[in-house]
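Handoff note, outgoing to incoming analyst
You'll be picking up this chain. Sequence as last confirmed:
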Amino acid sequence: MAIDFETANEHRGSPCAVGMTKVVDGRVDSDWGTLIQPPAGLRGFNPFNVAIHGITPADVADAPGWRAVLADIVAFGDGLPLVAHNAGFDMSVIRAACDAESMAWPELRYTCSQVVARRTWKLLSYSLPYCADAAGVTFTNHHDARADATAAAEIMLAAMRSAEATSLDRLLDGHRIRWGWMTPAGGWLGSHYRGHNAGSRKPLPGADLDADPDGALYGALVCLTGKLNSMTRDEAFHRLAGVGAQPAENVTKRTDVLVSASPAGLRPGNSLSGKAKRAQALLESGQDIEVIDEDEFLRRLNS
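Most recent structure output, in case you need it:
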């Protein structure tokens, strides 16, 4: 069962749409989705988010609230484990929205198609369009929650075929990826690769040494290309330092992540910026480097 959320603003507890896709006997069987009225106090729509998914306050004015939607999510999921692309984000939406409504978290087991894709294909970017392209999936409606959920499901099915795995358990065991989970008692664990390089990054000079070492950008050397819509470059550099990362002006052999402010530059087949071309060359030479878009950058800053 794959799931995807869109949010109204930068707060994880502001879901405004959800899409789910059910897989039966190794193929996509059905899908479901709905707009959502975000929890009270979190209903402001950020122009940056609206520009990404196109959902406005008027669209959700008559939509069901989180309490009703979560019940529908659990019913459609029918106890099956969940898959999401960048599951850390989507699962945090569930937890934050429940917290905003003073609700218990649901009992869930989940994993991440992005984590699996990293162990399956060597890509310049592990954004959903790149992973879908690697999986041979036709994908044209990015940030439509149903379309994104279906793409995540298809990516996992392609990864299973690539690994000749007959179940998600066998796929994750083969790639040394642990299941994530959350419980009504408030416990949770993310779905991560358990290999020898996991968690090996160290804080860099100039970064906050007290930053969360489990943060998505902790210990990363990050370069930006293009003009961000959500913040100035100086603000981005300050935010990076705050999460234990370090900004860099140019792509080098030490760069871990390149943030591309142009979403079009992260679609397979589109022309790359000079820095992205340099990243591609480094990737092909064996460097572990990744290019992400601004939306993904914001998610990692807040994870």
